[in-house]
Write a structure and sequence with these properties.
By secondary structure, the chain is mainly alpha-helical. The chain has 13 helices and no strands. Helix 5 crosses helix 6 and helix 8 packs across helix 13.
Length: 324
């Protein structure tokens, strides 16, 4: 009878039974296995790939005396362990800032690309809409604009064009010089807007006939052109416009052309009343009226009294009568 000390320790293969479906150490290889190509991902597909990666992270163990080699077991040799790849470390996020190219999440706006659910979960609907740009500086004050334009007209009436300065305008309006310069870069632009504001007060008048409408509008124009500030500004702008085509365009657009609606409204009323005197060419009638009044008051320096106005209206209405 053999003693206990003489017994050989069991081998590893004797203690670990082969898994079900795999040949044992003494079994002959199945001839059908040669007809099945080995799976490049391992016997268990993606799971085999994951296990091989895990094996690559663990230290290798030496084969015991009872372990089988791949050639003896009939199984394909395992792929060489590869180094597991990890994403590059990301910089810590600063509150309110994201890395370049980051796409925020609608529920977590501070989540960057490293914390997002991945490319498959990113959609264009997650991109936040760009916020409107905030205007720089203080908002423009309508009260300050009105005070500046009124001070400009007052100083024009008191001192004329040559002595008018933006510093005095700012002092008279009670605003800082920077406030004025932010709105108007020079004296010319300021005077144009000051004149455009008062010319904008002219309104069409429905007096019942073409002659009465024309008489009321011309009377308002005469009163406006008789003011000292208007005469100083109008003559100075006319002289400056002769040397500056850009200024001439601005004066025409802001002051002259905006008054053409006075004649257009009169022509529409005459047609609605079916009057015999019709304004068939409103542009020409406007030029005749304004040219005559401006020349009489500002160039010739003569007044437009009631006698002159009646004679002018007789001439105008005769031109508007249909030809016989």
């Amino acid at each position: 009878m053999a003693s206990v000390t003489d017994a050989q320790p069991p081998t590893r293969s004797a203690l670990v039974a082969p898994p079900v479906g795999l040949p044992g150490p003494d079994a002959s290889p199945d001839p059908r296995a040669a007809q099945i190509p080995p799976d490049p991902q391992g016997p268990l597909g993606s799971v085999g790939t994951q296990s091989s990666q895990l094996r690559g992270l663990m230290p290798a163990q030496a084969a015991g005396p009872g372990d089988l080699t791949p050639a003896q077991s009939g199984r394909p040799a395992a792929a060489a362990p590869t180094q597991a790849s990890y994403p590059e470390p990301t910089r810590p996020l600063i509150p309110g800032r994201l890395p370049a190219g980051a796409v925020t999440s609608p529920t977590h706006p501070d989540v960057g690309p490293a914390e997002s659910a991945g490319p498959a979960a990113v959609s264009t609907s997650q991109t936040p809409a760009s916020a409107p740009a905030r205007p720089h500086g203080r908002p423009r004050s309508a009260a300050a604009d009105a005070a500046i334009l009124a001070a400009t007209r007052d100083l024009l009436a008191e001192q004329g064009w040559d002595r008018l300065s933006l510093g005095e305008v700012a002092a008279r309006a009670g605003v800082a010089k920077t406030t004025l310069y932010r709105r108007w870069p020079g004296k010319t632009e300021l005077v144009v807007d000051a004149m455009a504001e008062i010319f904008g007060t002219l309104r069409p008048v429905d007096a019942g006939s073409v002659r009465a409408d024309a008489a009321a509008v011309i009377a308002d124009l005469v009163a406006l052109l008789s003011r000292p500030e208007t005469q100083a500004a109008f003559l100075a702008l006319a002289a400056e416009s002769a040397r500056d085509p850009r200024l001439r365009t601005v004066v025409r657009e802001k002051i002259i052309d905006r008054q053409r609606h006075l004649v257009l409204c009169g022509a529409a009323r005459a047609e609605a009343r079916a009057e015999t005197s019709r304004i068939h060419d409103p542009g020409l009638v406007f030029d005749v009226i304004t040219g005559t009044i401006v020349h009489r008051l500002l160039i010739a320096g003569e007044p437009v009294d009631q006698d002159y106005l009646d004679r002018f209206l007789d001439f105008l209405l005769a031109a508007l009568e249909p030809s016989r």
